[in-house]
Amino acid sequence: MRLRYVSLWGALFLMLCAVMAQAQGDGPRPGLMWNRTGLPAVFPLQVKTRSGQNYVLLLSDEQTDADVLAAYITGGAFFRVLVPPGTFRVRFASGITWQGEEAMFGRHGQTKVIEMPEALTFEVIGLRRKAGHLIDLTKVDLGDQVQAEARSLQICHYLGLGKDAFAGRLPKQSGLRHEDPHLGLTIRSRYCFAG
């Protein structure tokens, strides 16, 4: 009888925790929610936000206007996601309490929408760069006409011969490093900003 009583209290405690988590608006885990393009996500997209709001990033195909990628962002936290190649319209839904993909942060004006004024292109530039973007939403006041800022963010690849090809030329912690012992090549990748 006592075991049954403890199990009942345990079940009630778990249900209470679930209700409290729902009431606090715990959203999806930060990061990629889905990618419907069928293409690999290899281009960087970084978003700077202020705390107090949470965001859903939506990329839409420029031609068809169909949503092709979604990611969840916790306001104020560092956020970077890899996206597929292409040119996309970029929108953000923002709010406080997550209510699911259909309602986002709530109906009747509870979900605010921020749309980038121009489509952004994610592509390979030359042989050594994957071009992406950094979007700064920290200066956007919801309800004002202040535009979000975007600038170029790239992944740069450096190719060298031999194991010590980059000795003294790049910082030790300059990003990813790949060595091919058969060809004697070393490739280093790091995030870089274009002028």
Would you kindly provide a written description of the structure presented here, covering whatever features stand out?
With 195 residues, this protein is mainly beta. Helices cover 11% and strands 44% of the residues. Strands 1, 2, 3, 4, 5, 6, 7, 8, 9, 10, 11 and 12 form a twelve-stranded mixed beta sheet that branches. A hairpin with a 5-residue loop joins strand 3 (54-61) and strand 4 (67-74).
Keywords:
mainly beta; 11% helix; 1 helix; 195 residues; 12-stranded mixed sheet; elongated; 12 strands
Strand and helix map with partners:
Elements: H1 2-23, E1 31-35, E2 43-48, E3 54-61, E4 67-74, E5 80-83, E6 86-95, E7 112-115, E8 120-125, E9 129-136, E10 149-161, E11 176-180, E12 185-192
Quick structural summary:
By secondary structure, this protein is mainly beta. It has one helix at residues 2-23; strands at residues 31-35, 43-48, 54-61, 67-74, 80-83, 86-95, 112-115, 120-125, 129-136, 149-161, 176-180, 185-192. It is built from one helix and twelve strands.
